[in-house]
Design goal:
The chain has about 240 residues and is mostly helical. The chain has 14 helices and no strands.
Amino acid sequence: MSAPTDLFAEPSLSPAAAAATLVLTTSRPSLSDRLVRGLRAVAPRLSDADRAAWAQALATPLGQAAVTTPNRIAAFLGQCSVESDGFRVLEENLSYSAARLCAVWPSRFPSEAAAQSCAMEPERLANTVYADRLGNGDSASGDGWRFRGRGLIQITGRETYTKFAAAMHLALDAAVEHAATRQGAADSAAWFWSSRRLNALADAWMLEKMTITINGGSQGAAERARLCEAARHAIGA
């Protein structure tokens, strides 16, 4: 009686095919390698150790989100660099002067006098500008401050945090805390990227539309485009 056939065994490759496969698998850089290359371009103020740590934190969630091609990785890193000040800030900075508040939220603060009560008052500012939107309660609820921007793509608002918590199988408070850690910042950014279907925009290199999807406007569009291009050049095909 002949031995049973292994139905899951791969057919043997010819010597030529085997050689071609070896070249392809050994010459193609890994996702971690591409991340480190891209991070050098978009986050020059990070140490080599920090870049390696970010690459490690990002590799699994980006793999799960299919952010694995040069265009997708480059667009992700460029956008995240602007959102996080070069991968160094994981919580929204809301310590604004009155003049800066007028520039960032002109409809809410039409004059420096109107902005004075929230100037350099981050908790009051968050509870004012994020009240009754993004799934938050009113200004007295404290939701604006509790659900302020965190992570590499600054996820914001009770509604977004609730969806992120469900995706991570975490309680809401745990998800909020997780988003402010290195791994949580990587997880939340990859989740946000996937949930907004940004891979398609990266494939088409539609950076302006991507910026609006992430930021809600075109703030920093030129710098985002510059960094995305720099990362794509550093990563290569």
